[in-house]
């Protein structure tokens, strides 16, 4: 009798323990389901199937998304050895030709000189007096000049406009002196700023772009420089100006009227798809003919840099062609043959 009671007691204890295990398991299951946002009563197998279907649907949708556009590789479409076409607003490179290979930037260098001068905070009416010792070396090197004379007093604004519109080496050298004391110090400033802008394949030796084997850049880097320059309202205004008259002084009582070299070069090569705004030309025997420019269409801003042209009209013709081929139209990245 006692033995039967013991057996019933053991069975009851086992049943009690089994019930506890089942309750604990059920509670754990409900917690897991709640954490995973899986409704109670839905089996793990059906949940896994639903997850798999969702993953497959997402994968299929991703595979149908358009691929990121690839820049058009230019070859014989243009005469310039180097080119870079950029939709700045969309941050999209539309085309390039040797765009990241080193080249000599010539007077496109003056974009950096302009930027640093405008960033210096020097007042526009700050006077500067030219001296013979500064001008004579520029004349000997055959540098382009505005036409300022020894002992002539001009303003900081005259130097800014003269450096861009006339591509004047006299104005550029003066800016370097006013901003940093001398051209060597200014060149170091230029190189520091270039690194800040991500122009990692650029090195400047002087403020004007006169040839030096160690004075180089790329079409891409010049595009980055121009884009940053355009962010400065004063720089943008100067680059877009057609005509400027220097301040009156004893040497030029009526001032000097200077016209934009870029506008004169582009007057017969105006693109139809965009509104050409301005830019900076360049030339040395080693660099060839160059042009960095910008244009607008609607809310979009475009930059085109061409360099290494063999003929004087090569950069203007190529610039017109690239703007009309790639910018301001619905077909901004035609397929390559």
From TrEMBL:
Binding sites annotated in the UniProt record for substrate: 280
Catalytic residue list: 107 (acyl-ester intermediate), 110 (proton acceptor), 167
Organism: Ruminococcus champanellensis (strain DSM 18848 / JCM 17042 / KCTC 15320 / 18P13)
Domain Peptidase S11 D-alanyl-D-alanine carboxypeptidase A N-terminal: 76-309
Lineage top rank: taxon: Bacteria
GO BP term, pick one: peptidoglycan biosynthetic process
Name of the molecule in the record: D-alanyl-D-alanine carboxypeptidase
EC number(s) from the headed UniProt entry: 3.4.16.4
Family matches, as Gene3D superfamilies: DD-peptidase/beta-lactamase superfamily (3.40.710.10)
Signal peptide: none
């Amino acid at each position: 009798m006692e033995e039967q009671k013991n057996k019933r007691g053991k069975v009851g204890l086992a049943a009690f323990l089994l019930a506890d295990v089942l309750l604990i398991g059920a509670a754990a299951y409900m917690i897991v389901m709640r954490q995973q946002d899986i409704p109670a009563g839905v089996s793990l197998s059906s949940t896994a199937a639903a997850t798999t279907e969702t993953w497959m649907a997402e994968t299929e949708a991703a595979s149908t998304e358009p691929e990121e556009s690839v820049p058009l590789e230019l070859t014989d479409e243009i005469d310039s050895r180097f080119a870079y076409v950029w939709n700045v607003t969309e941050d999209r490179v539309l085309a390039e030709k040797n765009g990241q290979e080193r080249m000599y930037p010539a007077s496109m260098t003056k974009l950096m000189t302009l930027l640093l001068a405008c960033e210096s905070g020097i007042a526009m009416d700050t006077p500067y007096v030219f001296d013979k010792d500064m001008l004579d070396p520029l004349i000997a090197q055959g540098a382009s000049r505005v036409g300022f004379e020894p002992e002539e007093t001009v303003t900081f604004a005259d130097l800014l406009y003269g450096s861009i519109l006339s591509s004047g080496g006299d104005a550029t050298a003066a800016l370097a002196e006013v901003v940093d004391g001398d051209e060597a110090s200014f060149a170091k400033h230029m190189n520091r700023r270039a690194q800040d802008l991500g122009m990692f394949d650029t090195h400047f030796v002087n403020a004007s772009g006169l040839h030096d084997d160690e004075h180089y850049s790329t079409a891409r880097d010049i595009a980055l420089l121009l884009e940053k320059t355009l962010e400065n309202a004063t720089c943008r205004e100067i680059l877009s100006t057609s005509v400027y008259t220097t301040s009156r002084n004893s040497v030029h009582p009526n001032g000097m009227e200077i016209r934009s070299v870029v506008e004169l070069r582009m007057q017969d090569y105006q693109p139809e798809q965009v509104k050409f705004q301005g830019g900076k030309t360049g030339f040395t025997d080693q660099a060839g003919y160059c042009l960095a420019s910008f244009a607008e269409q609607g809310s979009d801003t475009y930059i085109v840099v061409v360099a290494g042209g063999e003929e004087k009209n090569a950069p203007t013709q190529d610039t017109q062609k690239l703007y009309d081929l790639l910018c301001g139209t619905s077909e901004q990245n035609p397929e390559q043959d």
